[in-house]
Amino acid sequence: MFDLNFARASFGQILAAAPLTLLVAVVATLVGLILAILVAIAREKKIPVLAQVLAVLVSFIRGTPILVQLYVVYYGLPQLLVLMRSWGWNTNPDGLPAIVIAFSAYGLNAMANLSESIRSAYHSVDPRQYEAGIAVGMPPFKTMTQIVVPQLITNLIPNFTNIFLDLIKDTALIYNIGLVEIMGQANIVSSIGFKYLETYTDALVIYIVICWIFAKIFQLIESQLRRRYVPN
Amino acid sequence: MLLTVNDLHKSFNGREILKGIDFQIDKGEIVVMIGPSGSGKTTFLRNLNFLEHADQGQMDFAGHQIDLAKPDKKEGQWVRRHSAMVFQNYSLFKNKTALQNITEGLIYAQGMAKDKAEAIAKHELASLGLSQEAQLYPAQLSGGQQQRIGIARATVLNPEIILFDEPTSALDPELVGSVLGDMRKLAEAGQTMIIVTHQLGFARQAADRIVFFDEGKVIEEGAPQAMFDHPQNKRTAQFLTALNDAN
């Protein structure tokens, strides 16, 4: 039978691992967002060679499981650093913490998904507004920052929320490289009392609450932004 | 002449839309362009404002000589800053209020201080009777109001010339009058304008000259009275008959 007391007693222990889950998700999103903006610009500007290379990279990342990507970065990144050291770079392949691996793998994953979302949010802004800005003599860059980007951000939020929530959930895999986040902690606690259902239920509740809170926050931000210029 | 264009050619995907347009307009003149859909009127206007890039052609705009096939970036920007455009679908900035739609060009194209730009925009809105709408966003305005804001956005820039691309085509019939009213006031104030429209009544009253476009060429031009009552070209006559029948 479900041992409610054990579940209750373990809850705090498992919750204590939540900050690591959030840290990986947030850092990966920030790194991914910065890279995604650059990728989206390069692809929209159709920069020769670079745009094509990035398109392949993005579809590669989107077409493979994140667990595989995590392992590839885990085993590949140190080797890359060894290679870079042989080129004369001052790298230290042995001192690479697992958390950096997690930031890199999830950051790249976020980059791929976010860059596609940014492009579609950009395309959903009516391009005639950009033309109108140019036609009144506004410089192209100002037209982008004043007119296009604010609308793009509003359009981006729903997809951004999905990607961020997916990242939070996908971080459950980083216990595979030795990081103890919510899922890893649940594994450890359950192996003590052999009460798996109880601890995984704890993890479930924690994930649901975290995701619900973030979904609400982003929903509020979006409606605040949109309310300003779209009547109900 | 304020603006002269010689031998303007423009193709899209190998299809020639403009087949050598020669055109000129004097300061204060009002030219109305008519012609069937797809005849190249809109493309012509967009080339004048460098929203499209011509394949061939020469422009003289207020003494600036520009090779339309390879316009210098600075020259293009100069032309845009001394001209303005009113669009068929208004193309207002959706994330800006009516007031901000008007100030944007003053602030970011002409480098005016924000409070000065706002004073000008408020004055313009008041003269149009749209002060109530100053803080509303485009989605909260009727089509007619949006287009009137679109015209105000163009006129506050004090441009040498305003290009109108079918400004009333997307409007409900009862909203057309207010937009044409604003354009009449501009005409009376001596604003140079090129207007693409199917509003023949307005053209007859307000235009100094009518230009008839067909299949990428100027077929005929002349004073409204002469053009409408005694068109010389067979295509012009056919088009005018069709348009009158439709009305």
Automatic annotation (TrEMBL), chain A:
Keyword Transferase present in the record's keywords: the answer is no
Which PROSITE patterns is this protein grouped with? ABC_TM1
Chain ranges passing through the membrane: 20-41, 53-75, 95-114, 173-194, 200-218
Q: What is its main location?
A: membrane
Q: Could you tell me which residue ranges the ABC transmembrane type-1 domain spans? A: 18-218
InterPro entries to which the protein is assigned, alphabetical: AA_ABC_transptr_permease_3TM, ArtM/GltK/GlnP/TcyL/YhdX-like, MetI-like, MetI-like_sf
Output one GO MF annotation: transmembrane transporter activity
- Subcellular compartments: Cell membrane
Which CDD domains does the UniProt record give?
A: TM_PBP2
Protein origin, superkingdom = Bacteria
What is one Gene Ontology biological process annotated in the Swiss-Prot or TrEMBL record?
A: amino acid transport
Alphabetized, the UniProt keywords read: Amino-acid transport, Cell membrane, Membrane, Transmembrane, Transmembrane helix, Transport
Which Gene Ontology cellular-component terms appear in the entry? ATP-binding cassette (ABC) transporter complex
How is it placed in the membrane, per its record?
Answer: Multi-pass membrane protein
Which family is annotated?
Belongs to the binding-protein-dependent transport system permease family.
Q: What name does the UniProt record give this protein?
A: Amino acid ABC superfamily ATP binding cassette transporter, membrane protein
Taxonomy of the source species? Bacteria, Bacillati, Bacillota, Bacilli, Lactobacillales
TrEMBL record, chain B:
The alphabetized UniProt keywords are: ATP-binding, Cell membrane, Membrane, Nucleotide-binding, Transport
Q: What is this protein called?
A: ABC superfamily ATP binding cassette transporter, ABC protein
Q: Which Pfam families match?
A: ABC_tran (PF00005)
Q: Name one GO molecular function term.
A: ATP binding
Show the GO cellular component annotation of the record: plasma membrane
Look up and give the organism this protein is from. Answer: Limosilactobacillus pontis DSM 8475
Q: Where in the cell is it found?
A: Cell membrane
Keyword rRNA-binding present in the record's keywords: the answer is: no
Regarding the membrane, this protein is recorded as:
Peripheral membrane protein
User: ABC transporter domain: from which residue to which, for each copy?
Assistant: 3-240
Q: Chief subcellular site?
A: membrane
The record's annotation in PROSITE patterns points to: ABC_TRANSPORTER_1 (PS00211), ABC_TRANSPORTER_2 (PS50893)
Which InterPro entries does this chain map to? AAA+_ATPase (IPR003593), ABC_ATPase_HisP-typ (IPR030679), ABC_transporter-like_ATP-bd (IPR003439), ABC_transporter-like_CS (IPR017871), MetN_ABC_transporter-like (IPR050086), P-loop_NTPase (IPR027417)
Record flagged with keyword Repressor? no
